[in-house]
Amino acid sequence: MGGRPGPSVSPERQRALLERFYAFRRGALPDRAPGSMRNPASVYTDPARFARELRVLFRERPVPIGLGCELARPGSYVTADVGGAPIALVRQPDGSLRGFVNACRHRGAPVLSGRGDELRSITCPYHAWTYALDGALKARPLEWGFDDVPQADCSLHRVAVAEQYGVVFVSLDGGPIDVDALLAGMETELAEYGLERYVHFETRVREWPFNWKLVIDTFTEAYHIPELHRRSIAPDYDFRNSIWDPFGVGQRTVNFRSTIEKELREKAEGERRLLPHTTIEYFLVPNVVLTHQIDHVELWRATPISVDRTLVSTSLFAPTPPETESARRHWKKNLDLLLQVTETEDFPLMAEIHRGLASGAVRELVYGKLEPALVHYHRSLDRLLEEGTTRR
Fold first, then answer.
1. Exposed e or buried b for every residue in 44-60, given b needs 16+ CB within 10 A?
2. Among 48, 92, 130, 182, which has the highest number of CB atoms less than 10 A from its own CB?
């Protein structure tokens, strides 16, 4: 019903990852951090820390926005918030992407909202200033009232955009974006998925009363699965034998499903497949988790609103266009089930955790060596914030 399986990681990489899984099964200790970490509660609750995160992590560094296939055709657009700044991305007639501050040069009203396609021009809903898809001002009603302000000086403010390996990054400082440097080796794996060939099925957005980092924390470890998810997905996962690899400040985890047991029993070693039996997560700093799940791709994006408010967007991408009602039901069911778990089990608990941290009664959190992705994520953020403070 869901169409053919999406492009996969190379057979060589699958064999290497499976060999590491076999080693765990033979008694080797699972991947772990060099040491445990104590993280102050203020990391999640301090407004000054939050302001520094917005500046250093979102305003001074390139930020992942989504997948290029969300803007499949000329005239397609998406809007987003980056460190408190409204932006819009628009697919150009030549296939390139342009990014702008989503604010009319007249009175600052947003010129686009949400997402859409088939744009031929961009018209501000306030006073109908009209822009070309490249952001150049084309027309102003009652032009004589602005004849001392040249149109050429009133184009939408540009932001830098880079699209590689199917992933889109933006930079508010306007400088060039070195995607390979950001991915630090992860690009080799991402390229194998052929993300640019996927199809955006749907994005759902919901606001939650907790700090944005708690969204990413949720995905960094499988340690919580047997207890928190005991009535839902726990029987489907082998939570003990996760694989973890760092890529600069980013990282990748591989979590195995219980169906791997049947694969091991029934197939010869050279015929065993990895992808149908795993959840593979790529953590793109600061706020995106890109997941390959059985036969599709998901993208989670945490948008900070305030120190204790976060927008969580969840996007599902199918390997082929869902051209039948059966296919559409298949992908909708996948997204429904995904959000049923996170929105009834994970995120409500994150809200409770944040309330406890904000009370002042909880001074610190303790991340164990068995949670290497959680430790690596927070140590990476701390290092980036320290470097950003030093630059000032």
1. bbeeeebeebbbbbbbb
2. 182
pLDDT in tens, 166-223: 999 999 987 899 999 999 999 999 999 999 999 999 999 999 999 999 999 999 999 9
Range of the domain at 89: 63-176
Do residues 228 and 348 make contact, with C-beta atoms less than 8 angstroms apart?
Answer: no
pTM of the predicted structure, to 2 decimals: 0.95
CA distance 355 to 41: 11
CB 211 within 8 A of CB 203: no
* Cα distance between residue 186 and residue 184, in whole Å: 6
Co-location of 206 and 354 in the same domain: yes
Q: Kindly state the helix (H) or strand (E) to which residue 297 belongs, with its residue range.
A: strand 296-306
Same domain, 361 and 305: yes
Q: Is 124 helix (H, G, I), strand (E, B) or coil?
A: coil
- What pLDDT shows up at residue 313? 98
78: left (phi over 0), alpha (psi -120 to 50) or beta: beta
Count: domains in the chain:
2
Question: Is the omega angle on the peptide bond into residue 93 within 30 degrees of 0, that is, cis?
Answer: no
Question: Residue 283 in contact with residue 252, Cβ under 8 Å?
Answer: yes
Look at residue 4 in the predicted model and tell me its pLDDT: 43
Shared-domain flag, residues 264 and 341: yes
Biggest alpha carbon–alpha carbon distance for the chain:
79
Of 133, 155, 176, the one marking the end of a domain is 176
Say which DSSP state 7 is in.
P
- Domain-terminating residue out of 142, 176, 210: 176
Could you list the beta-strand ranges (E) of the chain: 37-40, 63-67, 77-82, 85-91, 97-101, 115-116, 122-123, 130-131, 137-139, 158-164, 167-171, 199-208, 237-247, 250-257, 278-284, 288-293, 296-306, 309-318, 364-367
Which residues of the chain are under the pLDDT cut of 70? Answer: 1-8, 389-392
